[in-house]
Amino acid sequence: MNYLIPANTKRGQLILGIFRPFDLILFGVGVLITVVFLAIMPLTSTFVTILILSPALISGFLVMPIPYYHNMLNVIIEMYEFFTSRQTYRWRGWCYKNGQEKK
To answer: Three-state SS string across the chain, please?
Structure first.
């Protein structure tokens, strides 16, 4: 009995094979805020235009897929967890005495 398991089984659970529902909600909120700002505020200078477009650009950057991770948001979360967690690892082996010698 040989079983064939596809390598990308997780992609079948994603929307369009790329996005989680949270990713689309995050991107949608960023675009919605940008559209509201475009309707309300006048585009008088380049700085104001960049400032108004920044919610959509930032949310688009966060949900951008990258290799070996799901997206940039996951990379940032993993980096935060790595730098804020304990970096010294205690030995907890499978030995009976856990590294202590017999007396």
So the answer is: CCCCCCCCHHHHHCECCCECHHHHHHHHHHHHHHHHHHHHCCCCCHHHHHHHHHHHHHHHHHCCCCCCCCCHHHHHHHHHHHHHCCCCCCCCCCCCCCCCCCC
